[in-house]
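Researcher: We're teaching a course module on how sequence relates to structure. For the next exercise, students receive a sequence and then see the predicted structure as tokens, so they can try to spot secondary structure elements on their own. Here is the exercise chain.
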Amino acid sequence: MRDALVDRGLVEAGEAEALAHHAPEELSPANGARVVARAWVDPDFRQRLLANATAATKELGIEGIEGRQMVAVENTTTTHNVIVCTQCSCTAWPLLGLPPDWYKAAPYRARVVREARVLLAEMGHQLPAATNIRVWDTSGETRYFVLPMRPQGTEHFSEEQLASLVTRDALIGVARIEDRAAV
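Model: And here is the predicted structure for the students to work with:
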């Protein structure tokens, strides 16, 4: 793959090696979890994140390839957000890491747009009928990620403890972070 990209002039030889080294260490859902946890404990950061996610994540030293224009969409008690890339598999790599296989699959990409509620239920994320679902189509230019609701029962959790609750699936919007009082 590297040779084909270099041969076609799409990347320089050194860029391919840098990305291979960079990806596992710096492109990770752990970054997204840190961002969410900070937003949950710092209302000012949360406002900056919702106003300009790219700039806010840079405050935490998170930026880079596939994250030049990131947008945070916030789940509320009445609205649930889910992301997809209907054209390919774009995600906010700095916050989500490389996309999971199911995210890249044509059935997910088509069905989440047509029947989001049904697909989410099949994935184990049942939403009340009254909850509005917004599907955000990530593109090469704009990369969305979900700011999940803070789970109940976590009021005394540290930022690190909160970050440990956040999953890549929650950042995509296909999973819920369980309330701690119920766990």
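Model: If you want an answer key for the exercise: The CA atoms of residues 32 and 95 lie 4 Å apart. The chain has a mean pLDDT of 88.
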